[in-house]
Amino acid sequence: MSSPGPALARGDTTPAERGPEAVRVTLSVNGTEHEIHIEPRVSLLDALRERLDLTGAKKGCDQGTCGACTVWVDGRRALACLTLAVTCEGHEITTVEGLSADAEPHPLQRAFMEQDAFQCGYCTPGQIMSAAALLDEGHARDDAEIKEWMSGNICRCAAYPNIRAAIRAVRDQT
Amino acid sequence: MTATIPSATGLPLDRVDGHAKVSGRARYSTEIPIPDTAYAYVVGSRIAAGRVVAIDASAARAEEGVLAVITHETLPRIAEQPPLVPSLGGTAAPGQTFFPMQDDTVHYAGQQVALVVADTYEQAQHAAHLVRVTYEERPPVTTLDQGRDLAYEPERIFGGWIPGRTERGDAAAGLREADVTVDGTYTYAANNHNPLEASCTTAVWDGDDLLLYDATQGVNATRMTVARLLGLPMSRIRVVSHYVGGSFGSKAMIHAHPTLAAMAARAVGRPVKLFLTREQMFTSVGHREEQEQQLTLGATREGRLTAVRHLKLSPTSHFDDWAEPSIGTSSQIYACPNYEGAYRLFRANTMTPTFMRAPGEAGGMHALECSMDELAHELGLDPIELRLRNHTEVDAMTGHPWSSSGLRECYARGADRFGWAGRDARPGTRREGDWLIGTGMATAAYPVAPLANPQRARARLYADGTAVVQAATPEFGTGVATVMAQVAADGLGIGVDRCRFENGDTDLPTIAAAVGSAGAGMISAAVHSAATALRRQLVDSAVRDPGSPLHGADPVRVSVRDGVMTADDASESYADLLRRTMRPDAEAVGQWNPPPHDTPYGMMTFGAQFAEVAVDADLGVVRVRRMTGAFAPGRVLNAKTARSQLMGGMLWGLGQALLEANHMHPETGRWANAGLGEYLVPVNADAPDVDIELIEVEDDVVNPLGVKGVGEIGQVGVSAAIANAVHHATGRRIRTLPITIEDLL
Ligand code: FES
Ligand code: FES
Fold first, then answer.
1. Which end of chain B is more exposed for a tag (fewer CB within 10 A), N or C?
2. What is the mean pLDDT of each run of 10 residues along chain B (745 residues)?
3. Atom of ligand 2 nearest to the CA of B197
């Protein structure tokens, strides 16, 4: 279950009002800082996909209902379509492109391939970002828990049993 | 021709594009970086019937970044409206014969009435909301209840492919003679495909040449449709579609948006990206229509069918006679002398309905298989036994033998795996705490789609012994790139790791849209033809070449394995042959002509579905605890990807049975729940583990490799097995889909 966005207020400083015209925003994504010129209404998802050419996070609904856009903000799951990019300044964003630091796939990426946990692949980056987080959080103790915690990520190809198998495989090897 | 020993075909290999998909590297149609791209956003009609009186776009035009607001007054007229023909036909395939924004008429809610193009997506979206449209509104007709009295019997449906009425014998007489009859009226909510990637097109003009990145099931279908609508030569349009984020029929026909994207790009002189919103997916790409099916069975005491009558009523658009073909299979799969099937339609303020996974059979087989369950219950027969008593080895409609069946094995092996034997048939007898437990089964059947035109592929072998095989088909989750590399490797006689399949581009050899479970059969046929033609060419070249160790050998006696041609003691590899003769590569095009339509065989894929449900006795909640499906889809090209597709289909059946409903608001004629938060699709917590048994049957009629396809058969019959299990659990026959808590309270 992804939350619509992290708690982004920073301490007691009230952020200066910006916009509605385009403003300069610095986003740190997968360890790299990017400066972009965007209107404050631009979602994190569109900032990633349309400005930074990071298209791993997918747009399935743009309404917070499908989980395809799941990324991490400061290590916590967030729906990028419901998060304004401008609120992510000073926070570290991780997308599927940054999931494994080196060329080696993350164990979950490998398990998804082995278990055939996708068909069209459009939900897959979001599934993997959610799955990696719930493994870290210890929310994969049994299938009932995996089912519940993964139900914010729709897979219309309905690869669900294989997604669970992939998560179990990684859980059991770690 | 010497057969190479197939070694790759059928293996459960991992997907070749798996890494691209799990790493986010796979680029879908809006994800191709193109400099200077502008964004188009559709304004859909608020009303469902009437006309546009005026459009005030001044506020929208004044917004920063807005490049154009296009309306019916400024959009160029289409060159020509192609007829409605399923994209399988290999011709232009518009989703309907109405093209929007050609005049002021509004036929359905959500119909495109304006297009805003701006520098950024946000600007386009915002400006679209500032477009003020004034309408003259008429009361719409959209639902069965509103349209029932307006119904007519169409002469033909489905783009003219299917007659409106089918009869054999005398159904009325058969029902009179019956010892037992069951009669039920089944009502299904409208459904929407909702692939996770909405439809989208990026249009790029270069002078008079048009390049489209389009999410489609057939790049050629897109090209032919857009060419006709825009009056462009086919040679000037290229369509690229490498990755498609699911379709399920929503991208099978070519709806208005690729053409609109091209028109918008021409208007602003820049590349344009048009990405439908989730809400627009409910009014832009067709849907499975709301429908009512009346099914009547007559049978003798012994359970032999004397008559089947299957009538369907459904809304279609104001311009096309379309119904999904729900009453074909019920005429074919059980031995019965008398049959009557007929469609009735009424004109409604909706789009023309379209294909959605298991088009026709998802609903038609639901009615038939629930009725068979009811008949078994009436007669005190086991549901499988009743089906076996009416089993037919020929197509009951034409009398032609099945090209292959396997249905008996599906019943037997499915029942075995599921643990069907010894089932206490009395409803409501099994209880676990609050839960009433029931089991149900159903037959699955889906026709092998009739194809018309030749299908082509190209195989090229390089002097280093690696090969590329090409066909224009896109990849939308079927695993086509993986399985076709397997097929090509065996055809050529090389290792599958040396063979790459290239696809998703109209520059590659032409192949029809991959729809109706036909993709695997027709593409494998073309690929096999290309690969074996190239192998023959290389073998011939070796045996004729005095410099080859194979010189003079009888080509029929040459076998090829791992890229090495061998006859008796002599051998030479493909690579050595090409290098020695100074050729960089060798190439062949393969063509497959599908069997003619009068082929004297019934062509059908069969299966058997089993489900166990638990129904909360007080709350009416239905949970599907487990499902088993046994299928005989002919040759399986990759056991892993085939199982995944069948599993997905079975879970679609679960959604059809218990969740999926698009609710029409009758006064406004608008879908009331156009979003993934309100239109319920199965999520992980809904999906039980699924048990799948593959029964291989040989079929030398349908296509060279005997592939019948796995895209739809997984879904067919599941909803009936679940509804029958709900009856077994509770004693209640629910005849509406989806079955909801309210139905069971
Ligand atoms: S795109 Fe963000 S939840 Fe669907
Ligand atoms: S793989 Fe297609 S939506 Fe999940």
1. C
2. 64 96 96 97 98 98 98 98 88 96 98 98 98 98 97 92 95 98 98 98 98 96 97 98 97 97 98 98 98 98 98 98 95 98 98 96 98 98 98 98 98 98 96 98 94 91 98 94 97 97 96 86 96 98 98 96 96 98 97 92 98 97 98 97 98 98 97 97 98 96 95 97 98 98 95
3. 3
Minimum distance, in Å, between the CA of residue A7 and any CA atom of chain B? 23
Nearest CA in chain A to B475: A120
Question: Of A37, A67, A97, which marks where a domain is finished?
Answer: A97
Contact B23 A97 (CB under 8 A): yes
Q: Which atom of ligand 2 is nearest to the CA of A156?
A: 3
Question: Binning pLDDT at 50, 70 and 90, where does residue A13 land?
Answer: low
Partner residues linked to B70 by β-bridges: B115
Partner residue opposite A97 with nearest CB, options B19, B24, B28: B24
Q: Check: CB of residue B330 under 8 Å from CB of residue B447.
A: no
> Phi-psi region for residue B231, left (φ > 0), alpha (ψ -120 to 50) or beta?
left
The pLDDT tens digits for B181-210 are 999 999 999 999 999 999 999 999 999 999
Chain A interface disruption, residue of B11, B22, B244, most A CBs within 10 A: B22
Best mutation target among B41, B126, B193, B196 (most A Cβ atoms within 10 Å) is B196
Select the CATH number that applies to the domain covering B18-26+453-592 from these four: 3.30.365.10, 3.40.50.300, 3.60.20.10, 3.60.20.40: 3.30.365.10
- Looking at residue A135, the DSSP 8-state letter turns out to be H
Beta bridge partners of B157: B162
Percent of chain B residues past pLDDT 90, beyond the cut: 95
Probe target for ligand 1 pocket from A66, A72, A96, with the most ligand atoms within 8 Å of CB: A66
**Contact by Cβ (8 Å): B334, B397:** no
CA B468, B470, B476, B480 torsion-angle sign: negative
Nearest to B690 among A41, A148, A161 (CB): A161
What is the rounded distance in angstroms from the CA atom of residue B616 to the CA atom of residue B200? Answer: 42
* Closest of A169, A96, A103 to residue A133, by C-alpha: A96
Distance of CA B655 to the CA centre of its chain: 16
Q: Which one of B14, B28, B643 has the shortest CB-CB distance to A114?
A: B14
Q: Return the residue of B nearest to A153 by Cα.
A: B683
Please indicate, yes or no, whether residues A66 and A26 belong to a single structural domain of this protein. yes
Q: Are B437 and B508 in contact (CB under 8 A)?
A: no
CB proximity B676 to A under 8 Å: yes
CATH code for position A61: 3.10.20.30
Q: Which residues of B are catalytic?
A: 712
Distance CA B433, CA B106 (A): 54
User: Does the CB of B605 have a partner CB in chain A at under 8 Å?
Assistant: no
ipTM of the complex: 0.97
CATH class, domain B150-191+287-449+599-744, is: alpha beta
Instruction: Say if ligand 1 is within 6 A of residue A44 CB.
Output: no
